[in-house]
Fold these 3 entries.
Entry 1:
Amino acid sequence: MQEIFDLQRGLNIYTLKKIGLDFEEILASPELKPHWIENYRKALSAELAELVREVQESGFESHNGKVEIVDMLHFLVSLSHLVDVQPSEVAMARPSANGGSFSECVVRCFLALDELQNSVKWKWWARGGGFKEDKAREAVLHLWSCFHEARRIFRMDFDQLKSLYVAKNRVNFQRQDRQYNEDTKTEADNQSLAKLS
C-alpha cells in the first residue's frame, strides 16, 4: 500500500503543478485542506456514481467496473494524504465480516462521504463550524472500509488492485502530458487496462 500512496502523491504533485499549485503546500495548510478535501470528496463521489452506473449497465464482471474502483482509489488515497491516514492503517482494513450487497455498500459509502462533507465548514450560511480534522480522518477510514467491501464484491485481490492501479497511474500521467481536459476526455486509454482485470 505504501507504493500506491507514494505513486498517488507523485501524481498529485505533477497534476497540481500544471495548474500552478503546490500539493505539499496544500498538505501543510489548515486553510487549504478543507477546500481540497471537498474537491477530492466530490471526485470520489463522482467515481462512485460511475461505478453504480457501470454495475447497472454491465454487472459485476465488467472490466470497467474494476477501473472505476481504481479511480476511486486515486481520490481515496489523496484524501488520506490530506487527513494523515497512513498506508499501514488501511492496508489491513477489511470489509465487514457479514459482507453485504453492493447496494448496501454504496449506501455506506455515500454516508461516509456525507460524514466527510460535514467535517468541513461547507454551510456558508451557518455560523460556527469550521474544519474538524478528527472527523474528516474518521470519515476517510470509513471510506476505506467501504472501498475494501467494493473490492471484495468485484473479487479484486490486492495484487490485482495494485497492478491495475500502477497501470492507471501511468495512464493518468500520460493524460496530463496530453493536456487532458473534459472536452477531450475519452475512455480509449482505459481499454489498454483490460488485460489486467
Entry 2:
Amino acid sequence: MSLQSLAARHRRSLLLAPALIFLAVFFVMPLFDNSMRSFVTEEGGFTLARYADFLTDRFYLGVIAETVVLSAAVALISVVAAYPVAYVLVRKSGRFSGMIIFMLIAPLLTSIIMRTFGWQVLFARRGLVNQWLVQDLGLLDAPLRWLNTPGLAIAALVHVLVPFAVLSIASVLQGVDRRLEEGALMLGASRFRAFWEVTLPLTMDGIGTGAILVFMIANGSFVTLVLLGGGFQTLPLLIYQQFNTTRDFPLAATMSTILLVIAVACLWLQLRLVRRQGV
C-alpha cells in the first residue's frame, strides 16, 4: 500500500472520529448500560431470569404482540396512503414537485407534541369536527367521541409517519425506466395492467423499505399514544409505567432491550433491501 493511500485513509479516519466518538458516548454507551441493568441481580450477579419471566408471561407476550400488530397496521396503512402520493410526486407533479416535497417535510419540522395536540383540538368533544357536524351542518344530534379510540390513535400515527414512506417509495420509483411501461403499453397492456405488472413490482424495494422504516418508528412511538389514548398497551407505554410508577428499573431495562432487538431486526431487514437494490 502506497504512502498516499495510507495518508488518505488516515484523513478519512480523522474525519470520522468526531462522529464515531459522539455516537459511542451518547448512543452506544447508554444503550449498553441500560441493557446490562437487565442482566444484573440485586446482589450484583448475572441472571436471565427477567427475560425468562417476561417471555413466558402471557400478559407481557400480549403486550409484545399488540406492539407488533399496531406497528404493522400503521406501516401497512402508511404504505397504501403513501404510494399514490409518491406516484404523483414522481410522475405527475412537474414543476410543483418542490411544493409537494415541502408539504411532506414541513410537518416533520413541527414538534410531534404540537401535532398531537392539534388532533385533540380537532376531535375533542367540543372540537372543530364535532362543532361542524352538530352545530354548523346539523348532521348529528350529539357530539361523537373521537378521542381515546384506536382509530384516531392509528390515524395520528399514520399522519406522523406517512412522509417517511412517501420519500422511500419516491426514491425507488424515480429510478424506474419509463420505457418499460411504454413497451408494455405498446404490446397491448392497459395502463392499469402495465402499472400492476411492471411498475409495482419494480418498486417493491421502496415499499419494503418504507414499511420497515415506518414499522420501526411506530414500534417505539410513545407521545401520540399517551396523548390520544386508544386503549393500546404497548412496550413503550409499559416501559414508561415501570420507570415512573412501579420504579422497577431492571424490568424496564429488560423491556427496553427487547424493544431494541425488534428495532435492530428491522434495521437488518432494511439493510438487506438496500444491498439488494445495489446489486
Entry 3:
Amino acid sequence: MEDTLLIDAAERFARGEMSAEEKIFFEELRKQNPELDQLVVEQLFFLNELERYGNTKNFKHILQETEAKLVQEGMISRSPLQGDSKVVYLWKRYKRTIAVAASIAGIVSLSIVGISALLHREKNDNLKILVGQLKEKDREIKQIKNQTDKLAAAIENNAPTAPRPRVDAKFRATGFLIDVSNNFIVTNAHVVNEARHQLIVENNRGEQFTAEAIYTNPEADLAILKVKDNTFKKMSPIPYSIRKSNADLGEQVFMLGFPKQEIVYGEGYVSAKNGYQMDTTYFQLSTSANEGNSGSPVINRNGELLGIITSMETNAEGVVFAIKSSNIYKAMDEVKKMKGYEDIRITSQPSLKGSDRVSQIKKVEDYVFMVKGN
C-alpha cells in the first residue's frame, strides 16, 4: 500500500497534477530522500517513453488512413506485384526504432516494479516516515477541499445568514431604479442633503441596502444613488422607459411612493408644462402628494417615465411640481465623466404599454424604493 502511494505521488508529480502547495512539499521530500528522487526521475522517463510510443502508434494509424484514401482516389495503386505503397514503406522502414522505444518503455516499467519490490523488502525507516508525511498531507488537502466545497455550496444555495439589524432613519423619501447593471437609483438632491451619516434604500419587501450618492444637482433637485450593498440581487431590465421629450398638457399619469411605511399609489394629470414662476426644469401636476413622496416616479399610461416628484405648492391645494425626465439624461452624461463610469447607460426594456393599470403597478413597484437616512 505504501509503495502504491509513493508511485502514485511520483506519477501525479510527473503529470503536473499536484497543487502548488503539494509540489513544494514533494520537492522538499525529493531533496531529502535520494530513493524517492530516483523514482520520480524514472517515472518521468517512463511517461515520456509511453507518450512517444502512443504518438508513434497514432502516426501509423494516420499513415494507414492516408494510404487508403490515396488508393481510393486513384493517386496510388496497390497490387501484389507492386507490393506496399510508399506510405506503408515509411512505416516499415522505421518500425524497428519504434519497437526499440516500446522495449525501453517496458524495461522502465519493470524497473519501477522492481524498485517498488526492493523498497518493500528493505522497509526503509525513512521511507516509512515519508509515506506517513504524504498520507498526512493528503488528509489535510482533502479536509481543505471538503470545507471549500461546503462553503461554495452554501453560497450557491443562498444559505441563510444572520439577519442584519434594521436602520432607524430620521426621514423617509422615495427613489427608483434607472440602471440595473450599476444599481443606480434616482431621487431628489434635498433628500440626500438630509442624510448626514448614512443612506439606506429599502424595497417593497422591507429589505434594506446601503447606498451612496455619486451625483447631486441642487439646482435641478436631482441625485443619483448607487447601491453599494453586495447582498443586493441583480434585477431584470427596467419595465418603464425614460422619456426625453417634455410632458404634454393634460397627460394622465400615476405615481408610486412612500409617504407611509408601505408603497402608495397616486394619480393625476399634467396641469402645466413648466414649474413655479415658469421654471423650465420642472412641470406642474394636478394631484396630491405628502411628505415621503419626494423622488416618486411620474409615469404615463404608455409606461413612459415623465418626471420625478420634488415639491408641493404650499399656497395651492393639489398642485405638485416634478422634475422633467430629460434631466435624468443630463445627469447621466455628467456621471459618465467620472472615472469608472465612462460606459454606463440607462438600462430598460419597456413592457408597460398596453397593460392595464394594475398590471403596470405590479411590474413597476419592485423598482421603486424607500430612501432613508440618518
